[in-house]
Write a structure and sequence with these properties.
- The protein has 421 residues and is an alpha/beta fold.
- Helices cover 32% and strands 18% of the residues.
- The chain has two domains: 4-136, 3-Layer(aba) Sandwich (Rossmann fold); 145-420, Rossmann fold, CATH 3.40.50.
- The strands form three sheets. It has a six-stranded mixed beta sheet with strand order 3-4-2-1-5-6.
- It is elongated.
Length: 421
């Protein structure tokens, strides 16, 4: 049965090529969607980039036919830009105009040709449903298959259907497994930058962060499990030339630690904030600075206190051992021999993750950290965000590792609060 899918603007921002992924069905774009894309296309961030990509794709179909009448796509369906929108909603907001267009189209089709409004905005889906429309989220990138693979497994429970690196516990020993039948005994109680593991999950995480065979890693877990702290400490372990125990073993493998976060609460735009880039970023990057303070303030072999060879967080930043930046600035760069930490990766779209990994040059390792249960982006969920998409797509790659940390390490109080509140 042929269907018509009416797309909301946010679907094309999420995936600029979304209109190609509805098989042999028709795709309809209300004129309001084109107008919104036009307003969003200006700028250098991810949203303007996606808007421009979507408009270019739509324009490529315009060159082959009349969009208002419908242009055939290779999938077997047709792409149409719908001018008439009707007046089925009292308010004339853009969301309501898109809903009204879908209602108008549904009124022209018979029951054997369903009209479905596709939106990543829950409020749009609720309002459309109240008007009798069939609605759905954009389903292409949704996945939950990966979730069972992030845990440390017992000896007889390592799934043979995946080839990525996973960890197995056998008595007091821990093994790193990869491929079909390859296994290696890992070194226990390994520390990085004087940060010692507090549980077996952190032991495995440290091993994976230091393992040269792994160059893509996903480290998930709720707040307080130590995922970001361990990732940054591992990067500094490689890049810092301090002469204390545990640093010289791998010093020089990477030229720099690069830490980046999506700036979701700031509307993906730093322009309206006062100060230079560093001052604008500081409130949103504060958790990264907090982790650096923990690392440089951890007593090591040089005695107690913060005064060790790498001195302070400010020293590490000023000497360019570590570079902290918003993800917006990564596009267009080439990043060879970097230890790249992408924090809060659950707030990324699949397209963002692709952009990041394709920026990685020779000898770079990229670690994505995030909490799949704490998503700030209004158009993403636990099954459609870029971190989940990455895990699902890379689970068969031998150079990839996914670990889900469950045990809190911040404090007994923090862990208990996470359980109860």
């Amino acid at each position: 049965m042929k269907k018509s899918f009416v797309l909301d603007t946010n679907v094309l921002i999420h995936d600029p090529e979304a209109l190609l992924h509805f098989e042999d069905n028709d795709v309809v774009l209300p004129i309001t969607v084109i107008e919104e894309l036009d307003k969003l296309k200006k700028g250098n961030g991810e949203i303007p980039y996606s808007a421009r990509q979507a408009l270019r794709l739509i324009d490529s179909f315009r060159e082959t036919g009349n969009l208002s009448a419908g242009v055939a796509m290779s999938s077997g369906g047709a792409l149409r830009v719908m001018i008439e929108e009707g007046s089925h909603m009292a308010s004339h907001s853009n969301d309501n105009r898109i809903i009204s267009a879908a209602v108008t189209l549904a009124g022209k089709k018979d029951k054997n040709h369903p009209v479905i409004l596709v939106s990543k905005d829950t409020s749009v889906r609720i309002k459309a449903d109240a008007l009798g429309l069939v609605t759905q989220d954009y389903l292409k990138d949704k996945t939950t298959v990966f979730q069972k693979y992030g845990n440390i497994m017992e000896e007889d429970a390592v799934p043979g259907e995946i080839r990525s690196v996973r960890y197995m516990k056998s008595g007091d020993r821990i093994f790193r497994a990869y491929g079909e039948d390859k296994m290696e005994l890992i070194r226990r109680q390994r520390s990085v930058m004087n940060i010692s593991p507090k549980n077996i999950e952190q032991e495995c995480a440290i091993d994976a962060l230091l393992a040269p065979r792994i160059n893509v890693m996903a480290l998930t877990g709720r707040a307080g499990t130590g995922k970001t702290l361990l990732a940054i400490a591992a990067g500094l372990h490689f890049c810092t030339k301090a002469s204390h125990k545990g640093v010289t073993e791998h010093a020089g493998r990477y030229e720099q630690v690069v830490v980046a976060r999506p700036i979701v609460p700031l509307g993906n735009d730093l322009g309206f904030l006062p100060g230079d880039v560093r001052e604008k970023l500081h409130p949103w990057m504060q958790p990264i600075y907090d982790n650096l303070d923990v690392i440089v303030g951890t007593p090591g072999d040089h005695g107690e206190g913060k005064e060790v060879n790498y001195r302070s967080a400010d020293y590490l930043i000023e000497s360019e051992v570590i570079h902290i930046e918003p993800l917006t600035y990564i596009r267009g760069r080439s990043l060879p021999r970097r230890f790249l930490v992408i924090d809060e990766a659950q707030n990324l779209r699949p397209l963002d993750v692709k952009t990041i990994i394709t920026r990685c040059g020779e000898g770079t390792k990229v670690v994505f950290t995030g909490d799949l249960e704490q998503i700030d982006s209004p158009f993403l969920d636990a099954a459609s965000n870029g971190l989940a998409h990455l895990i699902n797509k890379f689970i068969q790659e031998e150079n990839f590792c996914y670990l889900n940390l469950k045990q809190g390490a911040r404090s007994a109080l923090a862990e208990r609060a996470a359980e109860l509140l």
